[in-house]
């Protein structure tokens, strides 16, 4: 089955950090653009940021600029989301997905969705 496997979520206090991993399973992510999305129960999936195959980054959400960074290691077939200075509003399930071209913020046009990893920011 072609999908991403997300990991690294958990419970963290406000101001803390987490690093999420997004590992490709059944395919190689080299050459693909990878987006991170997040979703709360009952809400639409929201784009967070995206990295192209060439390493260019697009932020979809102004609230994470300066706090979240994305990187990729094609040799490990994995993309990472480093999240610093976490806030309670960052509490969501986080997902990654891929596209061949562009980095739009529309979740529905991405593929290879995984099960997500839950991030909870609470004291």
What's the helix and strand layout?
Layout: E1 3-7, E2 10-12, E3 18-25, E4 33-39, E5 46-51, E6 57-59, E7 68-73, E8 78-83, E9 92-99, E10 117-121
Parallel strand pairs: 2-10
Antiparallel strand pairs: 1-3, 3-8, 4-5, 4-9, 5-6, 7-8, 9-10
What would a concise description of this structure say?
By secondary structure, the protein is an all-beta fold.
What does this structure look like?
The protein is mostly beta strands and 123 residues long. Helices cover 0% and strands 46% of the residues. It has no helices and ten strands. Strands 2-10-9-4-5-6 form a six-stranded mixed sheet, with no helix packed on it. It is globular, with a radius of gyration of 13 Å.
Low-pLDDT segments: none
Q: Considering DSSP H and I runs of 4 or more, what fraction of the residues is helical?
A: under 10%
Rg: 13 Å
Q: Name the helix and strand elements from N-terminus to C-terminus, one letter apiece.
A: EEEEEEEEEE
Q: For the largest beta sheet, what order do the strands appear in spatially?
A: 2-10-9-4-5-6
User: What kind of sheet is the major sheet?
Assistant: 6 strands, mixed
Distance between the termini: 38 Å
DSSP E strands, number: 10
Mean pLDDT: 96
Number of helices: 0
Which structural category do the helix and sheet elements fall into? mainly beta
Give the overall shape. globular
Estimated share of beta-strand residues:
over 45%
């Amino acid at each position: 089955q072609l999908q991403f496997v997300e990991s690294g979520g958990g419970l963290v206090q406000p101001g803390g950090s987490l690093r999420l991993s997004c590992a490709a399973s059944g395919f190689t992510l080299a050459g693909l653009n990878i987006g991170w999305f997040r979703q709360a129960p009952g809400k639409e999936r929201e784009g967070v940021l995206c990295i192209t195959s060439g390493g260019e980054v697009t932020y979809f959400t102004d609230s994470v600029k300066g706090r979240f960074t994305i990187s990729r290691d094609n040799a490990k077939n994995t993309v990472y989301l480093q999240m610093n200075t976490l806030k309670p509003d960052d509490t969501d399930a986080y997902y990654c997905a891929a596209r061949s071209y562009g980095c739009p913020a529309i979740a529905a046009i991405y593929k290879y969705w995984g099960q997500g990893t839950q991030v909870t920011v609470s004291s």
